[in-house]
Amino acid sequence: xxxxxxxxxxSLRARQRLIKRLQQMGVSDPRVLEVIRDTPRxxxxxxxxxxxxxxxxxxxxxxxxxxxxxxxVARMTEVLLRDGVPDKVLEIGTGSGYQTAVLAQLVPxxxxxxxxxxxxxxxxxxxxxxxxxxxxxxxxxGHHGWPRYAPFDAIIVTAAAxxxxxxxxxxxxxxxxxxxxxxxxxxxxxEVYERRASGMHHYSLGGVSFVPLLEGLE
Length: 218
Ligand code: SAH
Description:
Layout: H1 12-24, H2 30-38, E1 59-62, E2 65-67, H3 70-81, E3 88-92, H4 98-104, E4 109-114, H5 117-129, E5 135-139, E6 152-157, H6 166-170, E7 172-182, E8 188-196, E9 199-208
Parallel strand pairs: 3-4, 3-6, 4-5, 6-7
Antiparallel strand pairs: 1-2, 7-8, 8-9
Helix pairs in contact: 1-2
Bound molecules: S-adenosyl-L-homocysteine (SAH).
S-adenosyl-L-homocysteine binds at residues 61, 65-68, 92-93, 95-96, 98-99, 113-116, 119, 141-143, 158-159, 211, 213-214.
């Protein structure tokens, strides 16, 4: 991907500033930093918001949903890649497709599920325009994961629930890792679950704020 596509307000300089900030905040994986620098986040936003695309902030993508803060995208992605590149990654909550695009440049195959059809179709177009073909998208309620392609080496949930849906934990491969915001609306902990041969291990990475994981389709 050409890092300088879309010059002016979305210039390489703004992207480099963002990378510096992510590094200051503790993101250190060079693969993740490079992909975030080179992914045109402005293309995942409405034109009116494009000038803010390289600020480290969550931004609205319509239909009451948000594109996650770059720091959170970086942190979650870094956790999934920590012990090597997972082969198959499942994402719940495609939204704009930005997190999907970041993952698709780092792992062989991404599966992503979204419950709002208009967002999913927009994301599908954007990912195709960027030439990211190692992504499969599904219009469904992500509580059920994607049994057909399970188990997954990594699962990332980008909407928050009071508990991680049990079907997602069931679809995690041995040696796999799931990262998800868990807790009440707009104030959650980023939780990591690892399925090891000895059983499920769990730890927390700190506070985050995601839109809720909802039931059913829109
Ligand atoms: N990863 C996205 C973040 C979008 S916000 C991005 O980079 O833009 C969270 C998304 O999760 C929203 O698009 C919302 O519609 C979706 N979502 C919420 N509940 C869901 C569910 N049960 N199944 C699938 N997607 C869901």
